Every structure is written in C-alpha cells, then in structure tokens.
Amino acid sequence: MQFMLLFSRQGKLRLQKWYVPLSDKEKKKITRELVQTVLARKPKMCSFLEWRDLKIVYKRYASLYFCCAIEDQDNELITLEIIHRYVELLDKYFGSVCELDIIFNFEKAYFILDEFLLGGEAQETSKKNVLKAIEQADLLQEVCCSLPSS
Amino acid sequence: MPAVSKGDGMRGLAVFISDIRNCKSKEAEIKRINKELANIRSKFKGDKALDGYSKKKYVCKLLFIFLLGHDIDFGHMEAVNLLSSNKYTEKQIGYLFISVLVNSNSELIRLINNGIKNDLSSRNPTFMCLALHCIANVGSREMAEAFAGEIPRILVAGDTMDSVKQSAALCLLRLYKTSPDLVLMGEWTSRVVHLLNDQHMGVVTAAISLITCLSQKNPDEFKTCVSLAVSRLSRIVSSASTDLQDYTYYFVPAPWLSCKLLRLLQCYPPPEDGAVKGRLVECLETILNKAQEPPKSKKVQHSNAKNAILFEAIALIIHYDSEPNLLVRACNQLGQFLQHRETNLRYLALESMCTLASSEFSHEAVKTHIETVINALKTERDVSVRQRAADLLYAMCDRSNAKQIVAEMLSYLETADYSIREEMVLKVAILAEKYAVDYSWYVDTILNLIRIAGDYVSEEVWYRVIQIVINRDDVQGYAAKTVFEALQAPACHENMVKVGGYILGEFGNLIAGDPRSSPLVQFNLLHSKFHLCSVPTRALLLSAYIKFINLFPETKSTIQEVLRSDSQIRNSDVELQQRAVEYLKLSSIASTDVLATVLEEMPPFPERESSILAKLKKKKGPGAVSSTEQEDGKREGGELNGGGERGADSTIAASNASTPSPSADLLGLRSSGPVSAAPPSAGSLLVDVFSEAGPAAPAAAVNDDGFLSSAPPSVVSEDPAPPMPQSDELLHKFVCKSNGVLFENQLLQIGVKSEYRQNLGRMYLFYGNKTSVQFVSFSTSVTYTGELQSHIHELSLNVQTKPVEPLVEGGAQVQQVINIECLTDFSDAPLLNIKFRYGGALQNLTLKLPVTVNKFFQPTEMVSHDFFQRWKQLSQPQQEAQKIFKASHGMDKEVLKGKRIMENFVCAGVIQTKAQQVGCLLRLEPNAQAQMYRLTLRSSKDTVSKRLCDLLAEQF
C-alpha cells in the first residue's frame, strides 16, 4: 500500500498515512485530486478505480471515506477488508466510533493504525492482538489530570 | 464536545481543537492558529523549563496544526527531546511527530537516531516497537545506514518477542525498499524464510511481506520458501473455519495470510517437486470448490475475504499458465462473476479475464463470454467498469470476432466518456489493422473512427492509414473513393481533410474516370475545406494540389491561379508562402517529364512496429499491453505487427511479403516489400513526414515534405558531423544550469546532470531512445576543437568517457559518465559526437558538451572594502573585459527596487584549474530605464576575463 487517507464528506482530511516518500507539496496535490475524484462518485459505483499508475480502493463509513492506494499487483478485495478491519479496531477502541472521536483523538487513530499496518503491509490482523497492544500502552500511561491547560 | 474516551486526556488540546472547529471562516481559523503558534513559541522559548506533559501537549498541538495543512517550522527539537522521556505517552507523541513531520535535517536525524538506538537496546518490547514503527514510518536513508545491520539481528534472535519480530520484519522491508544496497543478505536470510513456519500467525503475516519482496529481487536465495509456503497454505485452506481463532475473519480462515502466500508463490515457476505441486494443485482446487459452496454468512466481509483469496488463486493459476483444467475452471468462475450483482466483483472479473484471454488454454473459453462483455460495455453505469469491459474486448479479440468487436467498440465510442475516448480510438485502430483481412474494411473503420471521434484521433492513427494505403495497391482505389465520399459531408473533421488530401493527391487518378469525381470536382471539394483548416493541413493541401497538376494536367491553370492568389503567395505564414511560390514556379518551368519524376507516387513505407501500438503502450505503461501482445505473437505467429526484431515472426512475414495471404496482414510485411526506385531515407517513416524537420536533419536528410520523396537518398558520411548550428545556443542554456535536457529531436533525447568540485567535474549524460525501435551501433565520442588542442600546445581539459552499450532498446535510456579535469582555462567547449543506426540509416550528430570555464568557479567571500581594493589592483587594460548590452529577459523591477544601494551587483570567485587558480571579480551595472546592462570582468588572466564576459553576457 502506498498511502491511506481518511476524509469527510465535506472533503476535510481527517487522517493521512504515507508509506512512500513524497514531498509535502506532492502529498497535498494527491490529496486534493483524490478527494475530488472519490467524492464525485455515486454510491452504487465500484469501490475500485485506476488512478495514475495506482489502484484506489475506497469505502464510505457514515460520514467518512477511507481511501487506500495500492500497487498494480495488490489485491483489491483484501484491501477493502483492511479498511473494514481498521474501522472495527477504531470502533472497538472508542466504542462505536464517530468522526469526532477521530478528530479529537487523532493521535490514537494513528497509533492504532501503526499497530495494524506497518510500512503499508499488514502487521497483525488479529483484532484481539492489536487491541491488546494498544491497551497495554494505555496502561503504561500515567494519570495526570489536574494540570493547568492553556 | 465528546468525552475523551481513554488514556490521558490533554484538555488544552481538546479545547484548541474545538476552538478550531467553531471557527466560522478560514480567516478566523488562521487567526486562532497564529495565536496558538505564538503561544507555543513563547512557551518553548521561555526561561521556565517545561515539564514533560506540557511539552507533549504543545508538540501534539503543532502536529494537529500541521495535519490541518499549515506549515510548521519549529518544535522539532522539543519532539526529539520527548524521545528520551521515560513516560510512554510522551515518547509516543514524540515519535508520532517525527514520523509525520521529519525532514532530512542532518542535525536532528542524528539525535533522533540516538533516541531510537536507546529504545532498541532497552529490551522493553513496547519501547522497541515504538522505535521500529518510527524507522518504518520515516524510512530515510540515514536511518537505513544506522539500523540496517541491527534490525535483522532483532528479527531472528531467539529471545525476541513476537510483537517486536512483527515490527522488525516490516521495518526491514521498508528499509529494503528505500535503500536496498544497505540491507545486506547474510546468515539471517535463511532464518527469515523459516519464519513461514512460525507458531504465531501474526509473525507469519508480517514476515511474508518481507520474504515476498526479497524473493522478487533474489529468487534463488529464497527458493526454499516455495515448499514452506505451500504447506502453510494447505494447512490454512483445509482448516475448519474456527481452527485459527482470531485469525479467522468472518468465517474465512486467515484471508490476509492466504492472499500473501498465493502472492509469494507468484514470484516462482510451478514447483518442480511432484509432491509439492500436487499439494498446491489440491489447494487451488479446494479454493475453487469453496467458491461454489453456499456462503457461511450474508455479510459482505465474508464474501470479500473469500473472493480475495479466490482472485489471488486465479492470478497464480494464470501465472503458471500450465494447468488447462484449472485455467478453464477459473474462467468459468469469472464468467459467473461477470453477471454478479456486486459491481466490485464484475469489475474484478473483467480485469482478471483480461489476463486469462492471453493464455492459449483459456483464450477460447474467455471468448464464449463475448455477449456478456459487450452488454457490460453498453449497460454498466460506472465508467471504470465500462473501461474494464473495453479492455477485455480488446484482449479477447482475434480474427474470428474482430469485426463484431470493432463494430461494438465503434458504436460505443459515440457515447463513450471523454476520459477514455483517446484510448478507445487507439484500440479500435490497432484491432482494425491487426485483424484486417480485407483492406476496404480497414479503411472504412478508420474513416468511421475519424468521423465519430475525430478530435481523439491522434496523428499516429491517420499516419498509419496512409502508410497502409500507400503500401497496398489493392486498396488504393477503394480508399480514394471512400475518402472522396467522406469529404462530401458538410462538416467534416480536419483529420479527414488531411487523409483526404493525401490520398487524393496520390491516388485521385484512380477515381477520376467517373464524371462525379472528375479531377476538377476533386480539387474543388478539397479546396472548399481549405479555408477552414489549420496551417499544417493547408500546407498538406498545397502539396496535394501540386500533385494534382502532375496527375491531371487539365487542372493546371485552375490550381496555378489558386497558388498565384494573394492569400497564398503572400501568405503571412512563411511555410505556406514558400510552398505556394515554389509549387507555382515548379509547375510553370518544369517539363511534364521532370514534373512526373519529381511528383512521382510515394514509394512504399518501410515496415516497422505500428506507431499506434507504441503509443498505446506508452499510455498504459509498459507491461499493460505488451504482455498480451507477446502472448498473441506466440499464438498467432506472423500475424502480429509487433516488435520488428522478433526472429520467427519476421521469417513468416517475409515469405508473405509480396502476396497477400490470410496470415500476412497489413503489418506483417515488415521486411522488404517491393520497394521502388529510390529507397526512402531514414526519416521517411510517415510520422516524420509532416513534423518540423528536427535538429537531426543533417543526418536524416528528411525531405521536409514526404510527397516529394524521390529526392536522392542522402549520402551520410561516417565522419563526425560538424557541430549543429544550434549547439552554441544549447551551450548557453547550460552556463548557469547543471541539469536539464541538452538536446532533443524526434528520435533521441539527451539529458545532462553534472556536478563540479574545484577543478574536477563529473557529468552524467542520459541518452533516451524516444522511438519504439532499437538503436544499433550506438556510440559516442568526445573530441576537442583545434583551439583546445593545439593553440595552447597542451590540453586544457582532460575528459574521460566511459563507453556506452551499443544497443539502445526502444523507449529505453542509457547513461554515460564523463569525468572532466580542468587543466588550465579554456574557451571552447569539447564536442560530443553521437552516432547510431536507426532503421538502417546512420544518424550522426555533434553537440557541444556543456562544459564552460565558469563551472570551475569557487565563490569567495569578501567585504566590500577588500573587493574594491582588489578591483583596483586588477586595473591593467588586458585584465578587464567589458560588455554593454540590452537585457534580453527584461529586468526584474522588484529586485532592483527592493534594495536601494543596488545600483550595481558585484561577485567574486576563483576559477580552479590544475595549473593555476585565477581570481575573478565581476561587476554588473543595470540601467533600468534603458533596459541595458554593463558587465565588467576583471581577472588575473586576460583569456579568462574575456571568456567569462562572453558567457555571462548571454545570461541576462
């Protein structure tokens, strides 16, 4: 997988993960182009499309679009299920996840993704094992709640 | 505001995020962000040391701001500090910031690597994973240098935790992808392969991605993985849906791992060991069988996971291409999917069938689905699915169904989406040509193509129809008649006028017997389109007219009158005017015999790969077309028009060359057809006919108008050609540039990259073959002009070139390295001579190598006082060179205005040569009002001042 993007129906980017080195300018350009392309598609259309020399696999969950770019020899259907498994992980962690959870806890969304996918490949596909890793990390966190905030 | 569900909330961050969300406008958002940035900056700069929590919070805010799309130029240091925190969340945020925002700031990379190194050696698995994730996310070269040796050790060490192994495997994969040279194979290699046997499914899942990538690059070293992968796959496939516990996904056992195993096997040929192969075939059969079983769940996830494995298995079956039974079963399965209610499955089935169509075992089976595919082309609502259907029709096309498929594609073209029209046009043109048994059908198809989608018909397509008509005398009369009819339409596309003009100019006589298409009627028809056409088409029409004068003497006076009219002979376009003048003169002074010789019918074109096919390949990227084309070539022998160098094909084609037989199609005659009179010169491929004579003209000697092709073949000498007239201009382009395109014509592109240090330089030349045909006997040499060699009695430059491969494949690029040592200062650039044979003709061109004395400049820093003191020291008249000239690029007023004391610019530097160092001072005085510059150079050596002044004066 070359990258994964999460964006809202309004075209706001909620999460971006790049597995190939690209300049910030190029990333912005790709994002703009893809968000436009995907949002322009109608609901019943196919979840795959050719884009430049890559294959785009996307799926909409409520108000969020999950969009992955994979290479020519990669499997579209299994990528679709990668997206689904990630959604399940978020759902389980946040307890029926919504867009706001991802906005306010964006760092968690990144941590969960890193446990699941690394370098664009599946690292651990067992839901239990991924959540166990995240929960262990959460246990390591110290409790600090009464500090002043700006 | 939603409650933060888990972990430690950073309240300040949550407040900030809601503030941003509440912003009513972009301006308000930017204002809020700037306020926050100022706040964070002051906190970071403040005297009071920040505690870990605050640092984490601010770094996290910066990250949020960056992810919103704003630039962040500080905070990196604080993030790096977080790495050394012993609190997990602080470390985690530090790593996240670095993963997202790191740039190759060498100072920081060292510190980051330090932090990573500490965590890797901490033996705390959670910390180790964080560090490995960071390496995998950043994957920079510096990190590869630091850790490529360490990670394999972690990966295969006996006491490494499973989760760390998983991260290490994928981390290594990322490093291998970015810096393969730094990941050295070693004794860990064989142990990595054995991870396929690991107890832990997660470890296998992660490791197999690494193994697949490594196998692709080093298949021999990893080939033991085949039998391991087969046995692992067989265990998964035969397991009950609950055996694998959490690795079962919606009742499908380990779908990700299964797909990856099947993918890994695609890196290798079928297993040689009979037992292994038998087991694998059994697996594949089981997978195909399961597709027929009733689903265990109605959820789409179940069917997606199951079908993902199925498609991967089919991909493997196609890759092996040796089991007819499995291939046909795969085809039947895909056939079912073609009518599935899920759009995704229809899409994938069409895509997968495209590759099946090229296998000799399944080609016929694929063909049975033609009606379904045509129906998909007509009725699918999603353009990407229709596109796949069009691709499949193209792939399944052969002689038996070509007429049907071409007709369907043509009718689809009328309503096709704009985005895919050009590709469709190319495909129709190729199929029509490839499977044409009767040439009138071919001509009809192409003319229809121009009529329906004229705007999308690229030059290659109409060039090609002309080539074919010229080469086949049995179709010329029909072609003339058909274009004549097509031109009758009140609105016809300019491409039609081009084809019409060319064909009537050559073969109008074949239909002139009919009073409805008498010479004058033909001429008037063409001329009625003249005023609607662009300049190149008009030029073509003028050539058609002069050909008419030869074909039909009775039209001479009418045509001369047209040529003589002011709108032609005084046309503001120089090309049109020249043609009008020359053709008029030619028609009035030449005798009929001379005229007949000069304007003789075009000789046949030499056969070669279809330029259309080359264009489609280029559009689709290599592989997309070529793989099926190769297959076709295998299957159908000489029928294909593909690459000219295919041995077996060309013998078949040659035997059919002059007599049309069913197996020699339009393009089959790539070896010598009956070539008349003068052999066409190298450039006479039709593609070159109308384009501007490229810079290669001296060698190619293309008569710039192919009509007058009986010009004597050019004599090409083996001696290096004299430098091209534009070589000086090209040289000036590179005075202040070190990289770029040095030269380009229709055949060849030369790119240059260079770097200089002191008196040494290294230049990389990239020769790109722009055609689809290989260049042979490719050689280059660097020579010196007289001045460089003898005038100074010693060499000024020492230039070493490494020889290049004599063969440059079509579309390929070769690189040449040139080392340059500057011995003493010099004025003339060395000459680069390039020779090669393209389609039999020698191409010979000479350029100036972009090496100028200023490349060996080293800047010197000096204060203005020093500068003027030295300036005065160099006051002898011969030490100074001066030029006053008009600004050729206009002056950048902003630059001039912005700095008040900028009446003049000064620079200082030293030219480094082996013999001596020459100090140089420069002064540039712009005069904005007059748009003039005065450039003065002073140096300790007169030749240097003069040369630099000449070179630099060209740059302003």
UniProtKB/TrEMBL annotation, chain A:
Keyword list, A-Z: Coated pit, Cytoplasmic vesicle, Golgi apparatus, Membrane, Protein transport, Transport
Domain AP complex mu/sigma subunit: 1-140
GO MF assignments: clathrin adaptor activity
CDD domains: AP1_sigma (cd14831)
Gene Ontology cellular component terms for the protein in this record: AP-1 adaptor complex; clathrin-coated pit
Protein transport is among the record's keywords: yes
Record flagged with keyword Transport: yes
Membrane topology qualifier: Peripheral membrane protein
GO term, biological process aspect, one: intracellular protein transport
Subcellular location as annotated: Cytoplasmic vesicle membrane; Golgi apparatus; Membrane, Clathrin-coated pit
UniProt subunit comment: Adaptor protein complex 1 (AP-1) is a heterotetramer composed of two large adaptins (gamma-type subunit AP1G1 and beta-type subunit AP1B1), a medium adaptin (mu-type subunit AP1M1 or AP1M2) and a small adaptin (sigma-type subunit AP1S1 or AP1S2 or AP1S3). Binds to MUC1.
Function: Subunit of clathrin-associated adaptor protein complex 1 that plays a role in protein sorting in the late-Golgi/trans-Golgi network (TGN) and/or endosomes. The AP complexes mediate both the recruitment of clathrin to membranes and the recognition of sorting signals within the cytosolic tails of transmembrane cargo molecules.
Similarity annotation: Belongs to the adaptor complexes small subunit family.
The protein's name: AP complex subunit sigma
Source organism: Denticeps clupeoides (denticle herring)
Gene that this polypeptide is encoded by: LOC114769002
Automatic annotation (TrEMBL), chain B:
GO CC term, one of those recorded: AP-2 adaptor complex
Record region (Disordered): 616-674
Membrane topology: Peripheral membrane protein
Stretches with biased composition (Low complexity): 650-664
Compartments (UniProt record): Cell membrane; Membrane, Coated pit
Domain of life: Eukaryota
Residues binding a 1,2-diacyl-sn-glycero-3-phospho-(1D-myo-inositol-3,4,5-trisphosphate), per UniProt: R11, G12, K43, Y53, K57, Y58, V59, C60, K61
BP term (GO), one: intracellular protein transport
Transmembrane segments: none
Clathrin adaptor alpha/beta/gamma-adaptin appendage Ig-like subdomain domain ranges (all copies): 732-850
Molecular function GO labels: clathrin adaptor activity
Keywords assigned: Cell membrane, Coated pit, Endocytosis, Membrane, Protein transport, Transport
Database matches in InterPro entries: Adaptor_Complx_Large_Subunit, AP2_complex_asu, ARM-like, ARM-type_fold, Clathrin/coatomer_adapt-like_N, Clathrin_a-adaptin_app_sub_C, Clathrin_a/b/g-adaptin_app_Ig, Clathrin_app_Ig-like_sf
Primary localization: membrane
Similarity field: Belongs to the adaptor complexes large subunit family.
Described function: Component of the adaptor protein complex 2 (AP-2). Adaptor protein complexes function in protein transport via transport vesicles in different membrane traffic pathways. Adaptor protein complexes are vesicle coat components and appear to be involved in cargo selection and vesicle formation. AP-2 is involved in clathrin-dependent endocytosis in which cargo proteins are incorporated into vesicles surrounded by clathrin (clathrin-coated vesicles, CCVs) which are destined for fusion with the early endosome.
Subunit structure: Adaptor protein complex 2 (AP-2) is a heterotetramer composed of two large adaptins (alpha-type subunit AP2A1 or AP2A2 and beta-type subunit AP2B1), a medium adaptin (mu-type subunit AP2M1) and a small adaptin (sigma-type subunit AP2S1).
UniProt protein name: AP-2 complex subunit alpha
Encoding gene (name): AP2A1
